[in-house]
């Protein structure tokens, strides 16, 4: 669920301006999952633009506090959301931790880096939601550590049905600054894409796992 329509529109515009969202219907990307995609989202680029990263930080912090109040800890999902999560935690004056995809194979073998006590309330920050698999892997690690996970805020979501199903099954509340619908509407309105490209992007969204096979 997007946090606010105006926020979604402005976030889409900013991501398009800095090329954090790359649209290449004619030369598709291949995701780690093997899916072919005419769109690629790299929100880590946000960190290189002070004005935009401050906007994202403050919007996430404002909505986080309005929805959940102040949790005890902010958690970022490694690696893409470490920087953004740390910015949000700093803005709110809260402790920050981050969650690896799996425990380290050496040293203390931590999956959660930073100080987290049992029963502390946590809000998770994510940069991008596709299927939700890696994001919810982090949530489960926090639950295994006896944390009370209040919910998750992300910069962007593709809005796939499988992601909604996965979050529902895990019982985790998800909110995002922007989503695919608002991004494509803004890209079309501001002429970042042509009409033929828009048609391709909409076709992909309807069946991403089978598109361009």
Key phrases:
213 residues; alpha/beta; Rossmann fold; globular; two-stranded antiparallel sheet
Detailed description of the structure:
Helix 1 packs across helix 6 and helix 2 crosses helix 3. The protein is an alpha/beta fold and 213 residues long. Helix content is 41%, strand content 22%. The chain contains seven helices and ten strands. It has a single domain, classed as Rossmann fold. A six-stranded mixed β-sheet has the order 7-6-5-8-9-10, sandwiched between helices. The two termini are 30 Å apart. It has helices at residues 5-17, 50-68, 82-92, 133-144, 161-170, 180-189, 195-206; strands spanning 21-23, 29-30, 36-37, 39-41, 73-77, 96-99, 112-113, 121-129, 148-157, 174-179.
Q: Give me the side-by-side strand order of the main sheet.
A: 7-6-5-8-9-10
Q: What overall geometry do the principal axes of the alpha carbons give?
A: globular
Q: Low-confidence runs (pLDDT<50, min 5 residues)?
A: none
- The CATH topology name reads Rossmann fold
SS element count, helices: 7
What would CATH call the architecture? 3-Layer(aba) Sandwich
Intertermini distance: 30 Å
What is the percentage of strand-forming residues? 15-25%
Q: Kindly give the count of domains.
A: 1
Compute the gyration radius: what is it?
Answer: 17 Å
């Amino acid at each position: 669920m997007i946090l606010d329509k105006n926020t979604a529109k402005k976030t889409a515009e900013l991501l398009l301006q800095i090329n954090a969202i790359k649209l290449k219907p004619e030369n598709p990307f291949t995701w780690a999952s093997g899916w072919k995609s005419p769109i690629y989202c790299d929100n880590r680029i946000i960190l290189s633009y002070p004005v935009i990263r401050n906007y994202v930080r403050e919007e996430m912090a404002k909505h986080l506090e309005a929805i959940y109040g102040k949790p005890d800890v902010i958690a970022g999902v490694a690696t893409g959301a470490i920087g953004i999560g740390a910015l949000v935690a700093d803005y709110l004056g809260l402790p920050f931790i981050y969650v690896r995809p799996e425990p380290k194979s050496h040293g203390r073998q931590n999956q959660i880096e930073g100080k987290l006590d049992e029963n502390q309330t946590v809000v998770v920050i994510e940069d991008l939601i596709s299927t939700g698999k890696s994001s919810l892997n982090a949530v489960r690690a926090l639950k295994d550590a006896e944390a009370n996970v209040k919910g998750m805020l992300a910069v962007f979501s593709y809005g796939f049905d499988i992601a909604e199903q996965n979050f529902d099954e895990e019982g985790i509340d998800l909110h995002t600054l922007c989503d695919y619908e608002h991004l494509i509407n803004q890209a079309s309105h501001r002429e970042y894409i042509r009409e033929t490209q828009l048609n391709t992007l909409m076709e992909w969204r309807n069946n991403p796992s089978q598109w361009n096979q």
